[in-house]
Amino acid sequence: MKIVVTTPTGNVGSRVVRLLLQAGTRPTLFLRDPAKLDAETRARCEIVEGDQRDGDAVARATEGAAALYWVAPPTGDDDPVSTWAEMGSQAARAVAENGVARVVFQSSVGAGKRVGAGEIDGLAATEEAFDRSGASITHLRCGMFFTNLLLDPLTDGVLRVTWPVDLALPWVDPRDIGDIAAARLLSTGWSGRVVQAVHGPAHLSYAGIAEVLSEVLGRPIRAEQIPDDDMRAALRSLGMSDGQIEALLGMSIGLREGFVAENPRSALTTTPTTLAAWAYEHLRAG
After folding, report:
1. Would the pTM count as exceeding 0.90?
2. Is 244 exposed, middle or buried (0-12, 13-18, 19+ CB in 10 A)?
3. Domains in the chain, start-ordered, CATH in brackets?
4. Nearest-CA neighbor of 95 among 137, 135, 140, 136?
5. What is the mean pLDDT, run by run of 10 residues, along the chain of 286 residues?
């Protein structure tokens, strides 16, 4: 059974690859730079070098595939929504042309809104493209990644966000997403269109996250909601373009008031790794 994995060196993709190998398969890895893979992984996998922007390369990688794991990669483009939508369209075309039976797509809880959630709109467009492909499709509607917290060094002890600090949101360890993705890719017992949320072990507010980080880091951390324009200025100082800023900021603007995820928390959507466990591993020095 040929299983194709995109972004195989990412936080989720690398976990998917490891589990597929441990399950006894020889996955096909589609990526731009095979040198990023360690030698043992390269030896145990089929490698197809190419860019997810290149529809012909995607078609070549998925030829003869039974299953595909598709992740929209970081683009650096000024309009990531359009780029992700176009990539998704190319992937869906390849799936249809090659008769790929099953697709697992790494989406987001916000994709259920379809429009008005910043860069997540590109994931929503990709969901719709895969829905038209004729393949059986599982959309993994993932919560916010714990690894997002690595982007803020918290040097002054303040976690600045544009979300209300008391708003509880689903947060998840990317490795747990990989566990569900690998299980779906290996299983042949499902068909049709499936929406499966990946909510982590508990919904967390930024105020609650600050409490956990305070204990883990051994110093006080507090969460503070800042105006959208302050965040725009901060992102602009990092060299981001206006288009990139609005796509990123649009997620919180579009989802912070009145949004309800399609999937409620359940045994199917709840994953095991807590923020505290993740933070002790990744944020504590020494």
Report:
1. yes
2. buried
3. 3-145+171-198 (3.40.50.720)
4. 135
5. 97 98 98 96 98 97 98 94 97 98 98 96 98 98 97 94 97 98 97 98 98 97 98 96 96 94 94 98 80
